[in-house]
Amino acid sequence: MDHNELPVNLREDKVSDETKKLISSLPTDKDSQGNLCKYQGCWYYYNTFQAVISFQKHFQPQDTDIILASTPKSGTTWLKALTVALLERSKHHDDHPMNHPLLSNNPHALVPLLESSAPDLTKFSPSSSTRLFSTHMPLYTLKEGLKGSPCKIVFMCRNAKDALISRMHFRCKYEKIEVNSSVLEPMFESLCRGVTFYGPIWDNVLSYWRGSLEDPNHVLFMKYEEMKEEPCVQLKRLAEFLGFPFTEQEEDRGVVEKILELCSLRSLSDLEANKSGKTVNGVDHKFFFRKGEVGDWKNHLTPEMESKIDTIIEEKLRGSGLSF
Ligand code: PAP
Fold first, then answer.
1. CA separation for the pair 187, 33 (Å, rounded)
2. Of 196, 174, 86, residue with least CA distance to 132
3. Could you give all domains of the chain from N- to C-terminal order, each with its CATH number?
4. CA 253 to chain centre
5. What is the pLDDT of residue 124?
6. From the candidates 3, 92, 96, 136, which is the catalytic residue?
7. Which of 264, 289, 291, 297 to mutate to test the pocket of ligand 1 (most atoms within 8 A of CB)?
8. pLDDT confidence of residue 279
9. Which residue's CA is the nearest one to ligand 1's atom 10?
């Protein structure tokens, strides 16, 4: 792949000498896509590491900020859409709100990634009462940048096997290569070693799990599988946590179901705004929508792979009260 076509996080030409110096003092490794360094217990491609440092130094939090956190391919796009729809609902009473931001924007354009090198975070308007951001960083690294501000943080977790398969498909679309075992196997091995972008996945997820137990008013832990299983219950839980619960009248008017419909994979992926265009990081909007199913890993992983990753994750989560 031509260097200029690489996803922004994999490009190393934007990494400054200062960052390179920092990286030389960190543990480094590789996965099948690029060079990684380990900062505060988490692996980053170099360009993203630079953005993490910049976030921690320069981000100016506001107490009303909402942060949507997840590990990659765990339902970030869905969570972004649902949260935007929740916050926008008072402005859009009619059933066909032509000016709803989700109808003309990809969810990633509405909720910027905190550790992105592309947007200038100081540019976001402080006048809007609630600002929405997203992140894939673990909670302890995020908190350093939040500098004690009591922001609400929502974390979306997904089964590691489905997230892996989702990432493989995403990568193959991006690189215009065929899905096959020679792509999957090295990605699987990296997952098992814990050396993956934003991984080890178990440490990242556990940081939010523990955070949600310690401070349930500020950290909400959600699961992709539960969102699929009982969407109404989970959407109401999210609304309540964010401080915008549904009123009885709204429930009677079917607002919960309408939001779920608007944010469904089918309706989002049918929108022109999601069929065309790219994110600030140069990724086609359409790549964020695929099957959205639970258990698609069964179509790709061998029983040996299943058992290996299950054993590792079970061991890493033992005693935490969490399974995923
Ligand atoms: P990101 O980490 O790059 O932001 P993210 O949105 O977290 O990606 O994950 C993409 C997955 O969410 C895809 O899963 P799949 O590959 O297993 O299909 C995608 O299909 C799924 N997804 C996207 N939008 C929705 C939605 N509205 N409802 C349910 N699943 C969705």
1. 9
2. 86
3. 3-158+199-289 (3.40.50.300)
4. 31
5. 41
6. 136
7. 289
8. 87
9. 73
